Structures are given as C-alpha cells and as structure tokens.
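During the no-cost extension, the postdoctoral fellow (Dr. R.K.) reprocessed legacy sequence entries with the updated structure-token encoder. One reprocessed record is reproduced below for audit purposes.
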Amino acid sequence: MKNLTLTAIAILFSVHVFAQTSATSEATSSSKTSISTSVTNKQFSLTASFDTDKEKQLKTLIANTLGKPTENNKTSATWTSSDGYTVILRPHHLLIDVDKTKVSEDLYKSFEQLKTQIQSTINAH
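Re-encoded structure tokens follow.
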C-alpha cells in the first residue's frame, strides 16, 4: 500500500512538472470587412465594407474595368452608365448595382471578374 501511494504521488508530481500549459493570446482588430452579393435574373448587386487602406486598390480595379469615374470628389467616386450600372466607392464602402437586362453579356462578365478581384483585394491581408 505504501508503494502504491508513493507511486501515485510520483506520477502526479511528474504530470504536474511536465505538463504543458497552453498559451493564450488575444488579437484585436479594427478590420471590418464584408462582402455581400446578390444575383437574380435581372439584377446583380455587390456591397462591401473594407479598411481604408484598400480604397486606392479598389478604385484602380474599377477604373481598369470601367474607365474614369463619371463623378470624382474627395469623398467618393461614382461610375454610372445609361447601359444599366452604378458603382459608388466611398471610404470604407463600395456599392455596385447592375441591371442585367440593360448591359451586354460581355460587360456583365466584366462585372463578374471585377467581383472576384474585389473579393481578393478586400480579403488580402
């Protein structure tokens, strides 16, 4: 009985000494990114929220697809067309609305590619 007690104490001591403790860490981030898309037979829309540092990259992506903004000021850039789309880029926010009944198939494919590029840009760290 004495050996059993000493063995149990030795095992408990060994477990206590050699036990690993898990490290805990906390990360806080001011990042508030989100992307939402909606596609119907007639409409395509995308809304996105992102960190300010992504705005310049997004503006370049959109300009490469749609050309220069139709309106451009300090707080926003807007691309609109009677062909059926509106794109509004503001700090931290992007809105794209496309009327699929008015845009050409090629232009709609460009918006689908743009969506993929926007998602990659916003989600990149």
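Residues 15-30 have pLDDT under 50 and may be disordered. The CA atoms of residues 87 and 96 lie 4 Å apart. The remaining legacy entries will be reprocessed before the final report is submitted.
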